[in-house]
Design goal:
Length: about 425
């Protein structure tokens, strides 16, 4: 494996491990803020117990998310020096704003929330968590605007072999970045909703603090259902945008090889690993793919054969990741809708099998989020910046494979230890239940 392959592997490992913690941070903060606000307004101390319990799990998750995120920026500068030189004027601006504004705001008010229980009024303390939740989502905004520029570069000129920003407003309003932002945060909210339901289901099966965990389960169910529907809506917009701006990615997502107008949607297909086509196709829905891609039944959908082999993304992982992600998204809508209904009818105790299902469904939203990022990043290949810089052109020229192997091994061991510690702390805190 050369430096390019190893650098890609290292960034994939560290980025995906980091993103195991980001989605829960994006969603759980809102639920903690909601529970504490209910306590501040009603004086019901059950909501205080809920806020403290879920807030503790939020803090454990947040801490590891911060630690694992820092290394990514070092990798961009060290393993991807040529990329940094080319895009630094554009890419660095949103990342600087994220660090100096959103992350600092989030960090300060987390400190206020942790140490302010006996120093602030109930309403002021709840307001601190609302700020934390808002800042966490704004932190994601700036990072995703930077990634959106990599997917669809806007507001720049090429000068002296570098991309230089000319229009910050264009970057800020880049449709690709904004769609990514909403798709990502709503997916994080789904993760949080299923996390709350899964932990609550475990306690309800054991008859632990049933009233408290029924309330938690209900809040998580409503949050997950609303978020799942929002993900579906934004996901449709995201697919339309990909078909317009990155047609090779869209063709890989659906394993479309021939360019066609009034293209049908194939429900069952599997890309061939040898030939340019699908080894299996069945159950076509007429006009459906054109309608999905461009909201017109007669629109032309480009196939992969329209692109040179070196300009195509890896079809099989993109196709399988996309199909699995969509199937999981539909499953989340179904499960959360059932959860809302059973909670409102107060029937959770009569369906222990459903509670077991919700407990075992807890990791599924995490898997769906990671699959979504595989589609996004693998689907952009072979480009680091779409249409401007290939991934192979962005790798550092002075870094050797041995150096990357060393850092990859060190990161893998360190992250494995951190992941084990985080999982142990989350499980230990979740099993304890809520304070009286």
């Amino acid at each position: 494996m050369n430096t390019l392959a190893l650098s890609r592997l290292q960034f994939a490992v560290t980025a995906m491990f980091h993103f195991l913690f980001v989605p829960l941070t994006l969603g759980l903060g809102w639920l903690v803020a909601w529970f504490e606000t209910r306590y501040a307004r009603s004086g019901d101390r059950q909501y205080l117990s809920m806020a403290r319990f879920w807030g503790k799990l939020f803090l454990i998750n947040f801490a590891l998310g911060v630690v694992t995120g820092i290394t990514l920026e070092f990798q961009i500068g060290m393993n991807w020096a040529e990329y940094s030189k080319f895009t630094g004027d554009v890419f660095g601006a949103p990342l600087a704003i994220e660090g100096l504004a959103a992350f600092f705001l989030e960090s300060v008010f987390i400190g206020v929330w942790v140490f302010g229980w006996d120093r602030l009024s109930a309403k002021a303390h709840a307001a601190a968590m609302w700020v934390v939740a808002f800042a966490a989502n704004m932190s994601a905004l700036w990072i995703l605007l930077a990634n959106g520029w990599m997917q669809h570069p806007v507001g720049y000129i090429l000068r002296n072999g570098r991309a230089e920003m000319t229009d910050f407003k264009a970057l800020l309003l880049n449709p690709y970045g904004l769609i990514e932002f909403f798709h990502t945060i709503f997916s994080g909210w789904v993760v949080a909703g299923f996390f709350v339901m899964g932990v609550s289901a475990w306690h309800l099966l054991r008859k632990n603090q049933e009233e408290l965990f029924k309330r938690s389960f209900g809040a998580g169910a409503v949050f997950a259902l609303a978020s799942s529907l929002l993900v579906a809506g934004v996901g449709d917009t995201s697919a339309v945008n990909a078909a317009k701006e990155q047609p090779a990615k869209f063709a890989a997502m659906e394993s479309v090889w021939e360019t066609r107008s009034a293209a049908p949607y194939t429900l069952l297909a599997f890309p061939s690993l040898k030939d340019e086509g699908n080894s299996f196709e069945a159950l076509e829905v007429p006009y459906a793919l054109s309608l999905m891609a461009f909201h017109s039944p007669y629109a032309e959908v480009k196939g992969l054969k329209d692109f040179a082999p070196q300009d195509r993304p890896p079809v099989l992982p993109v196709f399988l990741s996309f199909r699995t992600m969509v199937a999981l998204g539909l499953l989340f809508i179904l499960l959360s809708a059932l959860a809302v209904r059973l909670r409102r009818k107060d029937l959770l105790g009569k369906y222990p099998l459903f509670l077991k299902l919700m407990f075992f469904a807890l990791p599924l939203p995490y898997i769906a989020v990671l699959l979504g990022w595989l589609v996004t990043e693998l689907g952009r290949q072979p480009w680091a910046v779409y249409g401007l810089m290939r991934t192979a052109e962005g790798v550092s020229k002075t870094v050797t494979p041995a150096q990357v192997w060393l850092s990859l091994g060190a990161f893998t061991l360190l992250y494995a230890a951190l992941g084990a510690a985080d999982f142990w702390l989350l499980v230990k805190s979740a099993r304890k239940g809520m304070e009286a």
